[in-house]
Amino acid sequence: MTSDVGAERQGAPPLVVLEHITKRFPGVLANDDVSLDLRPAEVHALIGENGAGKSTLMRVLYGMYPADKGRIVVRGQEVKIASPRDAIGLGIGMVHQHFVLVDPFTVTENIILGNEGQVVLDRQDAERKVRELAETYGFRVRPDAIVEDLSVGEEQRVEILKALFRGVEILILDEPTAVLTPRETQDLFGNLRKLQQAGKSIVFISHKLDEVMQIADRITVLRRGAVVGETTPANTTKAKLAEMMVGRPVLFRLDKPQVEMGEPVLKVRDLAGAGKLNGISLDVRAGEILGVAGVEGNGQRELAEALIGLRTPEEGEVTLDGTPITGWSVKDVRNAGVGYIPEDRHEQGLVLNMTLWENSLLGRHDDAEFSSRIGVLFIRKIKELAERLVKLFDVRTRSIDVNASTLSGGNQQKLILARELETDPKLLIAAQPTRGLDVGAIEFVWKQILDQKAAGRAVLLISAELDEIYALSDRIVTLYEGRITGEYPPDAAPEDVGVGMLGGATQEVAS
Amino acid sequence: MASGEVAPPVAAPRIRSEWIERFGGQMLALVASLAIALAIGSLLIVGYGESPITVYGAILRSSLGDLDGFGYVLAIATPLIFSALAVAVCFKAGLFNIGVEGQYLVAMVTAAWAAVTLDFLPGPVHVVVILVAAMLGGMIWAAIPGILKVKTGAHEVVTTIMLNGIAISLLAWAIRSPLKFTSGPTGQNVDIRTDNFPDSALIGDMGKMFGIGPGAHLSWLFPLGIAAAIVVWFLLRRTRLGYEARAVGTSQGSAKAGGISIGSTQLRLFLISGALAGLVGMQQILATTGYLGSNYVAQLGFTGIAVAFLGQNNPIGIVFAAILWGILSRGEVALQIKTQVPREFIIILQGILIMSVVITYQIAKRRLAARQLQRAGAAGALEDSAPTVEPEVATQGES
Amino acid sequence: MPLTDIAVALQIGLTYFTIIYLTGLGGLYSERSGIVNIGLEGLMIIGTVTGAWGARYFTETVGLGNVWGPILGLLVGAGCGLLFAGVHAIATITFRVDHIVSGVVINLVAIGLARFLSQAFFGQATQSDPGGPHLNPIDIPLLSSLPWGLGRAFQGLSPVVIFAFLMVFPVWYSLNRTRWGLRLRSCGENPEAARSLGVRVALYRYQGVMLSGAFAGLAGAFLAAEIIGNWHEGQTLGLGFISLAALILSNWNPVRLMFFAWLFGFAQAIPLRLNDAPVINLLPPQFINMIPFVVTIVAIAGFVGRVRPPAAAGRAYEGGGSS
Fold this sequence. Notes:
The complex is a heterotrimer.
Chain A: E1 2-3, E2 16-25, E3 28-38, E4 43-47, H1 54-61, E5 69-74, E6 77-79, H2 84-89, E7 92-95, H3 107-112, H4 123-136, H5 152-165, E8 170-174, H6 182-197, E9 201-206, H7 209-215, E10 218-223, E11 226-231, H8 238-246, E12 264-273, E13 277-285, E14 289-293, H9 300-308, E15 315-320, E16 323-324, H10 330-335, E17 338-341, H11 345-349, H12 356-360, H13 379-392, H14 409-422, E18 427-431, H15 439-454, E19 458-463, H16 466-472, E20 475-480, E21 483-488, H17 494-501
Parallel strand pairs in A: 1-11, 4-9, 4-10, 7-8, 8-9, 14-19, 14-20, 17-18, 18-19
Antiparallel strand pairs in A: 2-3, 2-5, 5-6, 10-11, 12-13, 12-15, 15-16, 20-21
Helix pairs in contact in A: 14-15
Chain B: H1 18-47, H2 52-64, H3 67-92, H4 100-117, H5 123-152, H6 156-176, H7 207-210, H8 221-238, H9 240-250, H10 252-257, H11 262-278, H12 282-288, H13 300-310, H14 315-338, H15 345-376
Helix pairs in contact in B: 1-15, 2-3, 2-14, 3-8, 3-11, 3-13, 3-14, 4-5, 4-6, 4-11, 4-13, 5-6, 5-11, 8-9, 8-14, 9-11, 13-14, 13-15, 14-15
Chain C: H1 3-32, H2 40-61, H3 65-94, H4 99-122, H5 159-166, H6 168-176, H7 179-189, H8 191-196, H9 201-228, H10 239-249, H11 254-273, H12 285-303
């Protein structure tokens, strides 16, 4: 463990100490002997990649999971935190990434729920209390507003106020800025500073280095469940943090095949609708991988769904090889030669309770090869297909008769990929194709995508991971708030692309 | 992008397939729930001062002890097979068809009309036409909630319950008005009913062939029911529609993303379910009574739901469950004659049995899911951005 | 047609209103807490048989007279409904059985259980002796003196009718102005949120379901003891399902439920008393019976506004068995 601590803070004894916390889940070591301390009135950032163990660690502190090993010391006393109620009792509160608010209730009702203080509710009194609390910390909320009508930033403030209402001194925020706009993020930081001045400590879980550098007093880096470093913004740089998070400066680069690019296979013009798309135009040529980069929540999912036919856009046109396919059903779009790797493999990729061979059929159940005209399935043919897919893509499984739920994430993704590529689609839409996968699986998936390009097919890659965008794309565009905000060559500087991802265009958008 | 995953062990030589494990687990659950129900029943029996062995023995003897009794059992089971199949077919697609009750009532009306009006048709043809009329009646009544669900999203539980209510009134009107009794004096004492159906409309007694008395009214509808169960099995497991239905029933999102049309699949299944429901009332009006009257046997739709769950929504299981139900129902008579326990004890036992089955099934399902999760190494459920759900319950959500 | 006929129809309508409203209120508590309860019919049935017995038993056998006897009878009906609903509660909350399935079982078992109890109480399986005791009917002051014969509608009503009307206040208040109500509603809208704040979701849901049994049982007891005077099989006439319809149309709101309970209650009276009225005399009586159901279908199919159930109703919530 490398310690890089510079100037000591005023010698304040730590408020919370986590000592040698180990937490294991089936098949995964989430926290590996992690030790961490939190000082009063400090903003302590906990950073790492997806799956590094940040959330798990804090959920242990918040009493949602029991640690397998290790102990927790709060204000000098060792404690057992068996439930969130215990944690709140100790002054520890947590705001999760996915809010738990009762939509039809007002802000006040959400805040006081469970701690109403009296049998008969006094609305005026409660709203007054909430208003006072909000003013104390400079939070802007409307106590009588219905939660359903609130913006995401307001909802988050309500969640924080819920914790403050219960007198917490330590506030854990899990990826709080993942769903905020840049302005809301700055508002949040202002609020956090006020909380800090009032003596509260904040644990800020994130994987966004810019923000962490801006707001944190101390930074602890986790990688694969273990602490790899602790430092302060003054003593480090983003590059160094990135290196600590990932383990090597750059993941790896596969050789991109050189291919003569053909005509545009996919043409999208002014695609709008689905609540999140605000006029997208782009082209993908044969033999090209177009990388759509952007922070999640800017319309990526809606774009993919609109292209495959799961959503009908309100405006705009989509053509595939010259044929307009706007508003076509999923079946027709697929038959026209489009393959789809969904970003949520459980919700849109596989039917978990069906066997592997049944899942192999998905998308092709109408094919004359696998079922007769009146509808009888040719089970043997389907199983042959499944065997082929499993072998070709090295899906690790006992047999093709097991349920898809028994496969690991990587193998599930491989199965989906195998199934989609088997039809040799003219266009492959790949949305977050390597989310949650280990390095080996990532490498495999990237190679398959590059193979598609080598075969002269078109690939639309939508990803929130810049590494992936850089590794695969021939051209990069950025998606922000449902619009394409910039187009970049594959060797563009990450900072430039980052600007595009956050809304500013530094270059002309090619149409 | 590390996530600390561990791939499951490479294929071990033993071929203990998932199917056997699932099947074995279900059988165990079924046996356990039967045992629990009988045990609770025993407590009640003892409360009456009888011995459980005597009582259960009496039930079994009356049902299985002689051929006649067995005939009764199968006759009772016949409508339940159709009813449960109707429920199961929809359930596989994630739909809850509580409307079987109303569907068979409407079917009895359309069948009665065909029976009475088309009396010029010769025997077997007449019967076939009546059965078709019944299936059409059921299908139409099932099409209403189906279309409403697809076009407006109206929840089928509510619409089918409402349609049940409407069907009851519809039948009441039909036997008083268009199909009313015309072949005799109408006075205060005459049952409200249709005319007797012509002989050409009735379904023959199958029991004769096996030495079963006519009182049991065991008809050819029973083997038709078995055939229906086999057809449903084939449909669900070996056809495209069955595949689509199961995909829609377990994971709508993936089914849609795979190009399956949810609405069209659900509607087609509703229609098939309605057709099956239509046959539920045929045993009574074409075999047992020979007319449709205000004393018709009701609740068969709801009982079908119970039998469907008893049989785990599996066509083969349903046949056995229906027969089991028939055995218990037949036992009512024996209870009355031979023991102190009132015949109503049977329905309570049946209720306990269903509750027990449904509960053990839930528990078994959860155990199985947890075990699968263990083996999979919590596939993808432990990313830091996952919602606040314990890994053990992360893969819930199937029907 | 004479006004007295309409008045009598109104009076009958008030009676049916009572049954539908009370049952609906019960269903309301259950569903607002997140548990779908389609077993209202079955719970009512239990109320009818036990209420009929209770009224007789306490009035005649125990000799409590014409006031306390029937009142205890009503309470017995409510109490047994509450207990029977406990089965639904245990199944759905502790064992997380599908709500619809459990509701269906409740309805099925209730029929047989009622026969069972009838045999035990009355010696006959399908009915009890007529002429059971009931509370003295009262005339509503002021309203019963309305001119042109309309006053007839408010004469000779069971006090339970008044009780039902008045229930809107405590029900509305308990749901919207107390912390108990806030917590109950949170269990129905977002049990995860409730749980994260320490609300014991299972506890509140048990209460909601048991209340639905109590109310439905009370309605059944009222029907059997106060109105008809005895128990007989099938006397609930699908009113439990009509209550469900009214509940859905009212968007699970106790005030709006009054309107629909009244509407459907009156609809029940039409075929009984108003067969000769214009327009109505064109329809066969059975078709008039269909009206509540048709209206509900039309409403939820979106033809008339949106109905929005509590968000969590019907989704068995994980973790319901512990606090």
